[in-house]
Protein: TRAP transporter, 4TM/12TM fusion protein
Amino acid sequence: MAGSHDDESRRQHDSDAQWERPDLEGEGVIDVDALSSQSEVKSDTRSLAGWWATLFAMVAVASSLFHFYTAGYRPLPAMEQRPIHLAFMLFLCFLIYPATRAGADRRPSLIDVALAITGAITSYYLAFYYQDIVMRGGFPTQTDIIVGTIFCLVILEAARRTMGMFLVVLSLVFLGYLALGPYLPGMLAHGGFSFERIIRQMYMSTEGIYGIAVGVSSTYVYLFILFGAFLQKSGTTTFFTNLAFAAAGQSPGGPAKVGILASGMMGMIQGSSAANVASTGVFTIPLMKSLGFKGYFAAAVEAVASCGGQFLPPVMGASAFIMAEYLQMPYSYVALGAIIPAALYYGAVYLQVHLRARKLGMEGLPRNRLPKVKAVILSRGHLVLPIFLLIGMLVFGFTALFSAFFSIIAIVVISALRRETRMSLRDIYDALVLGARNTISTAIACAAVGFIVGTVALSGIGLLFTQSILGVADGNLLPALLLAAAASLFLSFGLPTTSVYIITATLVAPSLVEMGVAPLVAHLFCYYWGGVSSITPPVALAAYVGAGIANAPVMKTGFTAMRLGMAAYLVPFIFVYWPALVQWQDASPWQLAIALVGGVLAVVCMAGIGERFLTRGLAHYKVIALAGCILLIMYPALWANLAALVIAGAIFVIEYRARPGKLVPS
Structure:
């Protein structure tokens, strides 16, 4: 009977005890800065003090000024820019990342200082002797081999400190493959490479450590992270949050929706989902908790919203630029192609949070606690102009580096239009330091990924990887997609967005292209499945950062984030079977319309499945029917989409007519 479903919903509401509305009517407008100060992000980095902090800040400022100068005024050759970039990053890394967690409260040791200096010298060595190496045709001397060996060891230690052991072990496995080729069985066997040849590949070429990953890190990634730091210090983050409060705060589950909108807006220009959680979660998570959301759910919402930022143009975690280079496509084509899948992702998350709020009887924040849209825009709306300037310059064909360079200058100029938002010299100084600090882990990860990319280039194992997937799939697309998804997820655990994409683009995407998937669609598929590692246990970095802020159980937060982020796992399959969602610029209006209807229908079905609720609790057979609709939507035929539309439409009509308060026949 219909009433039984209502009873089930009420019982779930009571058992979850998810929301107890406090009396907030008498409180004033929400103070974002006050909420931020109440929470603290747990970090494994040192909190430097005294002259150590001064040394770090001075080097960080020098690093940011170097990258800013070379981006907008005097570009350097790759084998000068990249070694100098890593010299800065390695020096800063060993000052701020301790060898063990137990050393987080201690100042840098002699070993840390020695590693910092050694890393900087061995990296800068290549830039200093660049002309000499070119004149001798790139052939290494004995000194080059010794310095290169030390440098590789320092990179592995830096990767261990910043990323943990997974990336180090993965790098060593690939290096071992180069050395042990003659002793491997079957298809894995190869002639092997000498120690000198391996060091030359990894240290002295643009196909190893100083390859495309570090190339992007030393240019696009650094500049866009610096751009984000200037936005943060100018108060743009507060503007985004207040705008999200004004737009969604009063609706059911308002604080969670605020988290989704604010994280999405910041995620557009952030380079890391974990960093996004750290920057916006410090005020969205406490607010969600203050309204009665459980800590693990609040942290999961923020993690999923931040994870989506890496799928959202214009920056896509800086991977849009790498993707354009890999595919030899215009940047604008890549960015525009990613818009619809990202919109579907956020639509699914937003709708699921809305259904959960409805299921639990939540209300929004009181109107008197919310800022007004007009007041927010009039007071700080000018701060968003640099973002529009950045997007406009990119669309009109300016290089990404020059666009970021000019947009950073625009932040300082435009923020000065109002006294209360004007950036002081101290704000500019802090932004330069923050930009360098936020780049360290990404830069080190990109350097360590160079071991993998260099091995693929030297040995040809990428072709073997592709042939293996094709062989197992045996010409069938679905098994190939499942294998590619699993490989992308496994290879991405614990890695930042840019590194994830480079690995999957090198090893996994070519197999899908061989199966007939369009190159941009194939790369986006692998990118999505690599990106979801940030919300997928056991290495769900974004979820764990959120759990630290919320003081919530780590694994429970991770699995809740998986459920909320269901769209990240399913949307890639949908746009592979309906490529018009990505290649809509080349599709006919009819193809695009069918794909959009299917995509939106899938989003609604995902939200209903995730909460087992539409207007009331869903019976099991209806959940199964909605899951079947998603499978039908993925099937590339008009009749399948129509069948899904009929089945889902029937369920929606039944649930709407039987919503609480309506009398329906049993």
